[in-house]
Write a structure and sequence with these properties.
The complex is a heterodimer of chains A (102) and B (173). Chain A has 102 residues and is mainly α. Chain A is 76% helix and 0% strand. Chain A has a single domain, classed as Helix Hairpins, CATH 1.10.287. Chain A is built from three helices and no strands. The relative contact order of chain A is 0.13. Chain B has a single domain, classed as NADH-ubiquinone/plastoquinone oxidoreductase chain 6, subunit NuoJ (Four Helix Bundle (Hemerythrin (Met), subunit A)). The radius of gyration of chain B is 21 Å and the shape is globular. Classes of the chains: A mainly alpha (102), B mainly alpha (173).
Chain lengths: 102, 173
């Protein structure tokens, strides 16, 4: 029997590794990859809470399923935007996009 | 006991790959390490006996999203692939470390100190039956999910159309 706290600590570590990557990296694709880590940590928490605290129900599982679908859509749109940014600015660093900064 | 050993292996794989994923300089390597993280999380789902979820994770995340990343990386940056990317600036790394450690400690203390963890039940190692999942996914009764199911299909369609609209080249008039 694996203790719940082990799962929770694992997903918390994964989450904050993603946050660290998001703050540290300055490349758009790398930042998006860090966001994927954060999303995965959250998905894992849904599944763990459902399975270990409420094993008779399936809400957390379905929420994870839908969250996987939504993150696929999010990645598609974000990558389209990044490709467009690269086409317009010839760079994929965040620092190059400053037109809307004030 | 076997579950615990499996969990430790998966945790080491996930955390090591995630660490390499945020620390490596090459974006292509970051995408590859992301793939290992996704496989590890799928392994956690299998460990929790959510086999359907694990299969969905592998096919959608590892199969679809990583492919999309790799294609985008190949389209975007010739320079980035040759490791000419960013240097990690010390101040920014310190800032990120500070934010992450403070957040990590806060969340970990809240989770560990919370009482709901003690309600954990011992779950038998049986997987959720597939026909139950299917019936709930397209059922319209109380615990049925046909509305979000349909919504997410429309949402995916809208997102794909939007992505094509954004990424498409403007035709010169």
């Amino acid at each position: 029997m694996i203790p719940v706290s082990a799962f929770l600590v694992l997903s918390t570590l994964l989450f904050f590794l993603g946050v660290f990557g998001f703050v540290t990296r300055r490349n758009l694709v790398a930042m998006l990859i860090s966001v994927e880590l954060v999303l995965n940590a959250a998905d894992m928490n849904f599944a763990v809470f459902n399975r270990i605290l409420f094993p008779g129900q399936m809400e957390g599982m379905f929420f994870t399923l839908f969250s996987i679908g939504i993150s696929a859509a999010e990645t598609a749109v974000a990558l389209a935007i990044i490709i467009n940014v690269y086409r317009n600015y010839h760079s994929d660093q965040v620092n190059s996009i400053e037109n809307m900064k004030f | 006991m076997a579950n615990l050993v499996m969990f430790c292996i998966l945790a080491v794989v996930i955390l090591g790959s995630a660490f390499m994923c945020v620390m490596t300089k090459s974006i292509m390597r970051a995408a590859t390490f992301l793939l290992f993280v996704l496989f590890g999380v799928a392994g956690i789902y299998f460990l929790l006996d959510y086999t359907f979820l694990g299969a969905a994770q592998i096919s959608v995340y590892a199969g679809g999203i990583t492919m999309m990343y790799i294609f985008a990386i190949q389209l975007v940056s010739k320079r980035t692939l040759q490791n000419l990317v960013e240097r990690f600036r010390g101040s920014r790394v310190c800032q990120g470390l500070l934010i992450s450690v403070v957040g990590l400690v806060t969340v970990a203390v809240v989770l560990i100190k919370n009482q709901f963890i003690n309600q954990a039940l011992t779950v038998a190692d049986v997987e959720v039956p597939m026909n139950q999942i299917g019936a709930a996914l397209v059922g319209s009764e109380k615990y049925g999910y046909v509305l979000p199911f349909e919504f997410i299909s429309l949402f995916l369609l809208a997102c794909i159309v939007g992505a094509i609209m954004i990424a498409r080249k403007e035709d010169k008039k």
